[in-house]
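User: Could you go from structure to sequence for me? I need the amino acid at each position, not a summary. Structure tokens:
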């Protein structure tokens, strides 16, 4: 087991990941769209809200369980869907799913995973597994992926709606990351500088590919062929009819990820989805997109009475999680923190991350005077009203 005695927070995991991964791969996780302004704002948005704790309260017993879809989550966070995880650690999807199941929190498997949804489900029994769907132009492929997720026992289907355009991530362009890492002298040097990664991920086993798509496409199933299919089949025409069709097909819980506009939230609720995830894809897609935390009050006020509102993008601390729950979110998702944690340390790293976040949530909840998360409310928050035009529903 790796030594985590000096790993106290997400930044510590990030340092470990930077030391383990070749620089272009680390940059691919870390980077955002264009000038990375939205990426940075995802973090600073939390600083504009501070706590007004209640300290004359008995908090000698505390519980951070939340109930979602009639079942408990041991902590109010889940692991967000991320593609190509096995580039960071062999079978990282399985490692993450097993760590999440052991911690009692949901794991969301990406369409673009390198381990198939069936294998992940078999390897992590008894937990809450959700499958994230990128909607393709070919309805037969969507149908087949949805049917497979149902057959494999996934509890929820999460449709991502914010990645229909190909994002402009300038770190990746500079580093020569397209379908593959370009074999430039700089990249070769970056890979050779990380021999442990080179052995673990590249030399000791077959290169990861898009395992969920292997059974869906006719023709060659090399990584390049599948990645090409993936990119060329993005469904830019996705609309409410597509959403309703998927609602009809999928009998389990249906979530939509990528909402930032209250109008979309209403439309999704009206289409019969079971929950929404506010997200700007971790600042990776639309530069200038608001932080989900900034639009949370407005969207909670709009739809939280009808459906649960979850969110991701920028959550790194238990205090961030508590702020979102106090505004009215049901739970949050962690993206990059889990990607850093799995890099080089696998399941143990992810377990340590989840335990660290759980500990932070517990501490903040105790400081605030809340025995349960249901006791959180906006009265515990001080909103930064310095900005022109700011009010209680804006952050
Ligand atoms: C390396 C990486 C790959 C991702 N791949 C996917 C994906 O396949 N599907 C998806 O819906 N979101 C994907 N996302 C977005 C995450 O699900 C999530 O929205 C985002 O990471 C949350 O922000 P955070 O990283 O600041 O926690 C990816 C994010 C990262 C960092």
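Assistant: Here is the amino acid at each position, in order:
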């Amino acid at each position: 087991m790796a030594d985590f005695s000096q790993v106290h927070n997400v930044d510590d995991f990030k340092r470990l990941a930077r030391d383990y991964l070749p620089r272009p791969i680390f940059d691919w996780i870390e980077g955002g769209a264009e000038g990375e302004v939205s990426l940075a704002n995802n973090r600073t948005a939390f600083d504009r809200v501070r706590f007004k704790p209640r300290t004359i309260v008995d908090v000698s017993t505390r519980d951070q369980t939340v109930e979602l879809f009639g079942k408990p989550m041991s902590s109010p966070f889940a692991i967000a869907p991320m593609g190509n995880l096995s580039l960071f650690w062999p079978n990282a999807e399985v490692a993450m799913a097993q760590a999440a199941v052991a911690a009692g929190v949901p794991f969301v498997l990406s369409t673009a995973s390198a381990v198939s949804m069936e294998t992940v489900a078999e390897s992590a029994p008894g937990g809450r597994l959700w499958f994230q769907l990128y909607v393709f132009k070919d309805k037969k492929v969507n149908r087949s992926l949805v049917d497979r997720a149902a057959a494999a026992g996934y509890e929820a289907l999460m449709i991502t709606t914010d990645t229909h355009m190909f994002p402009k991530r300038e770190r990746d362009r500079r580093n020569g990351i397209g379908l593959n890492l370009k074999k430039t002298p700089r990249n070769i040097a970056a890979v050779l500088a990380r021999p442990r990664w080179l052995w673990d991920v590249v030399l000791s086993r077959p290169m990861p590919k898009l395992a969920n798509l292997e059974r869906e496409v006719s023709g060659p199933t090399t990584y390049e062929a599948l990645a090409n299919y993936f990119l060329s089949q993005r469904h830019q025409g996705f609309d409410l009819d597509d959403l309703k069709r998927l609602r009809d097909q999928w009998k389990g819980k249906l979530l939509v990820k990528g909402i930032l506009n209250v109008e979309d939230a209403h439309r999704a609720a009206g289409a019969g989805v079971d929950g929404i995830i506010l997200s700007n894809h971790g600042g990776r897609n639309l530069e200038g997109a608001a932080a989900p935390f900034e639009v949370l009050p407005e969207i909670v006020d709009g739809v939280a009475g009808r459906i649960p509102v979850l969110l991701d993008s920028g959550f790194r601390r238990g205090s961030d999680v508590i702020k979102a729950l106090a505004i009215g979110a049901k739970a949050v998702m962690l993206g990059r923190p889990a990607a850093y944690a799995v890099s080089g340390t696998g399941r143990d790293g992810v377990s340590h991350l989840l335990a660290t976040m759980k500990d932070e949530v517990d501490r903040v909840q105790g400081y605030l005077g809340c025995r349960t998360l249901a006791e959180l409310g906006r009265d515990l928050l001080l909103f930064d009203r310095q900005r022109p035009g700011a009010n209680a529903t804006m952050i």
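One structural detail worth keeping in mind: The longest strand covers residues 253-259.
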